[in-house]
Amino acid sequence: MESGMNDAIDRDLSRDVANALCDAEETLAVAESCTGGLIGAEITAVPGASDYFDSGLTTYAYDAKRRHLGVSREALDEHGAVSEPVARQMARGIRDVTDVTWGVSTTGIAGPAGGTAANPVGTVYIGVSYGGPWGSEESYATVSRYVFDGDRAAVRAQTVEQALTDLLAEIDSR
C-alpha cells in the first residue's frame, strides 16, 4: 500500500470523526498498543482537534495497560494482551481515566512474528466505549476482532482505518 493513499483515506475518516464529535459536542481519548500512537496522530492531523481530542496513551507493555488503564492482571494472565477482554478494559479504562465521552483501544499482532494458531499475525481487537450521562445507564463498550493481511506497516494502517470506522459507526448510531 502506498502511504499517500492511506493518508487520504485516513484523513477523510479523521475529518468525519472530527465533524461527528464536534456536532455531538463529545470528546475522545485513545489507548493504543499495536498502533503505537498512529490513531492519535491521525486524529490530531485535523485542524481543531483540541476541541474534541483529549489524549492518547500508547500502552504497549502488560504493566502499562495495568498501570494506566486499569486492565486487570487476571484478564492479561488468562487471555493475553491480544484478546477481547483486554481490548474492552482498555477502551473503558481510557474513557474513564480521561473522563471523555468516547474511548478507543487497539491491541493486536502486527508481525512479522508473534502469531499463534488462535491469533495469527494480523489479528487485532478494536474496542470502542461510550460514557453516557451519570444515571442514564447508557454507558457501554464494544469489541471487534479483525485479521488483516500484509506486513507490519499494512496491518497497523488497516487497524487505524478500522478503528476510526468503528468509532464513527458508534457515534452515528447514538
From TrEMBL:
Locate the CinA C-terminal domain: which residues?
12-169
Q: Which residues form a coiled coil?
A: none
Q: Which domain of life is it from?
A: Archaea
Q: Which InterPro entries match?
A: CinA-like_C, CinA_C
| Protein name, as recorded | Damage inducible protein CinA
* Organism annotation: Natrinema pallidum DSM 3751
